[in-house]
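Quiz preparation item.
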C-alpha cells in the first residue's frame, strides 16, 4: 500500500510508527519545509537502512544523496523504466538482508512509538520515567525499565540499576564509568562491576562484525 505525505512532520511520524518498505522523496519539499536531504538525515536517526529514493529536478544535489545512503536518485521527469530500476535494486537489497531490524514499543506522551533497538544509545530511569536516548533525540516513557529490558533482550546491557546501554556506542571504560562516543558517562554498578565488564566484552565478541560495519 502506498501513501503520500505533504508535510515532513507527517512523514517522520509515519517512519517512527511504521517503517515503510521504500520511500520516494523530493529534494525541494516546498516553502516552510526542510529540504529532502535534511529530512533524510532526520529519518536516518530512526532507520539506518530504510531505502530512500530522491526524485527531483535538482541535479546539483545528486552527490548529497550519498551522505544519507540513498538507494537511487531520479531526475524529473522520471520514466517507468527508471522507477523499475529502483524496485529491482530494492529487491536485491532485501534479498541480502538476513535479519529483520528489531523494534520495541514504548508509551510516550500517551502515544505508542516503535523504536529501532540498534538506534538506542542508552536508557536511564529517574523516578517513574524511563528516558530512551537516541542520536539527536531523547524520549521520556512510562514504560518500566524491566519491561524495556525484556523487550531489548541481549541487545542492551544492564550496567547499573538505573541504566541500560548499547555496547556498540561505548568508546572506552574509564574507572567506574562507560564513556560513550557522545562523551556521556554511564556508571557501572559497584557490586558486580567485574561481571558487568565481562558481559560487555562478551557482547563485543559476539557482535564484532556488526560493530565493525
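Solution:
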Amino acid at each position: 500500500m502506498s501513501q503520500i505525505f505533504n508535510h515532513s512532520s507527517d512523514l517522520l511520524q509515519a517512519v517512527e510508527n511504521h517503517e515503510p518498505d521504500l520511500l520516494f522523496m523530493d529534494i525541494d519539499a516546498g516553502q516552510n519545509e526542510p529540504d529532502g536531504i535534511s529530512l533524510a538525515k532526520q529519518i536516518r536517526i530512526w532507520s539506518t537502512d530504510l531505502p530512500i529514493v530522491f526524485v527531483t529536478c535538482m541535479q546539483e544535489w545528486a552527490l548529497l544523496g550519498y551522505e544519507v545512503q540513498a538507494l537511487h536518485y531520479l531526475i524529473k521527469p522520471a520514466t517507468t523504466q527508471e522507477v523499475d530500476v529502483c524496485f529491482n535494486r530494492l529487491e536485491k537489497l532485501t534479498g541480502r538482508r538476513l535479519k529483520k531490524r528489531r523494534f520495541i514499543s514504548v508509551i510516550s506522551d500517551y502515544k505508542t512509538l516503535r523504536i529501532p533497538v540498534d538506534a538506542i544509545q542508552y536508557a536511564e530511569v529517574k523516578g517513574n520515567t524511563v528516558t530512551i536516548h537516541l542520536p539527536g533525540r531523547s524520549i521520556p516513557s512510562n514504560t518500566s525499565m524491566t519491561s524495556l529490558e525484556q523487550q531489548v533482550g541481549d541487545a542492551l546491557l544492564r550496567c547499573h540499576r538505573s541504566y541500560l546501554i548499547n555496547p556498540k556506542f561505548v568508546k572506552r571504560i574509564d574507572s567506574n564509568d562507560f564513556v560513550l562516543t557522545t562523551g556521556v558517562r554511564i556508571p557501572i554498578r559497584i557490586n558486580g562491576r567485574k561481571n558487568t565488564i565481562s558481559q560487555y566484552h562478551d557482547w563485543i565478541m559476539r557482535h564484532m562484525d556488526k560493530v565493525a560495519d
